[in-house]
Amino acid sequence: MKNRIQQFGFILLLLFSITTQAQEKQEPWTDAQLMPTQELADKINNSGKDKPLIINIGPQSVIKGSVDVGPGKEKENIGKLDKTLAKVDKKREVVIYCGCCPFDRCPNIRPAFNELKELGFVNAKLLNVPKNIKVDWIDKGYPVNQ
Amino acid sequence: MKRPASIILMLIVLSCGYRAEAQENEIKVGVMAPEISLPTPQGKMVSLSSLRGNLVLIDFWASWCAPCVEEQPELKRLYDTYHQSIKKGKKLEIYGVSLDSKKPAWEKAIRRFDIKWPQVSDLKFWSSPVAKTYNLEGIPYNVVVDGDGYIIALNLHGKELEDFVRAGLEEK
């Protein structure tokens, strides 16, 4: 009897660890969808024609030429995001950024990125901001608004 | 003989260069806290130097920063306890510098926590010149300044902050 309980407990533990592992991996983006800041800065600076559409979904737009939609955690702003993207080619590269804090801790990223995926943007990217937009963008001298 | 001399010369040149860079604006204990002068939500300019004579906690925060917001009730408790002077003439003052970008969000957070200490912001988010002056790399971040305007502690939180404030007000 005791053995059985132990076995049962072990299986439960195993199941639990598998589900938590699975949960950890369930971010809406893949590694390939994370764009390094240097790459975006190069794309802005290069006068090529295939410039991505850059959208701020954080507290304020900082990156040169980016569209300011506002914090993605607010439903109203997801509506604005929809409007901004209404006539955009689904194949166009769209880069969203937050910048308040390390990107994976920003509450605006997930709702906005999920929306991009749902709308069918196949080249949706998320700017990889390890600390914040000051340290990872402004301090590096990358192009800013105004 | 020639070689050691050139190496020494090179080291001197290198260290001078390094120093010049580091001195640009160093935020560390013992240096004068750089002046900040920004508007309150009502548009009144309040400067850091106007709070001289008090123990001043400069709190860098924003309504969009969850850990900063979580800290506000704690700061309020600290303020309520130590804003009345323990010893004659010396009390705690808090100078809240917000990196908010939208005024309504900033005002809402101030109201929510019923913050009574001076709150200032240029509403420029991470583009704020203050973020550059104070070499901010993330928030929440704070700087404790003594009555003469010198930095006496950096980035203390929780019990460590309270112990430091109490000790700072009790001495002399």
UniProtKB/TrEMBL annotation, chain A:
**Signal peptide range:** 1-22
Q: Give a yes or no for keyword Signal in this entry.
A: yes
Q: Which SUPFAM superfamilies match?
A: Rhodanese/Cell cycle control phosphatase
- Entry keyword set: Signal
Q: What is this protein called?
A: Rhodanese-like domain-containing protein
UniProtKB/TrEMBL annotation, chain B:
Q: Alphabetically, which GO biological process terms does the record hold?
A: cytochrome complex assembly
Where is this chain's protein located in or outside the cell? Cell envelope
Q: Which GO terms describe its cellular component?
A: cell envelope
Q: What is this protein's record name?
A: TlpA family protein disulfide reductase
The record's listing under PROSITE patterns reads:
PROKAR_LIPOPROTEIN (PS51257), THIOREDOXIN_1 (PS00194), THIOREDOXIN_2 (PS51352)
| Pfam families found in the cross-reference section | AhpC-TSA
Ranges where the Thioredoxin domain occurs = 27-172
Q: Which residues form the signal peptide?
A: 1-22
Q: Which UniProt keywords apply?
A: Cytochrome c-type biogenesis, Disulfide bond, Redox-active center, Signal
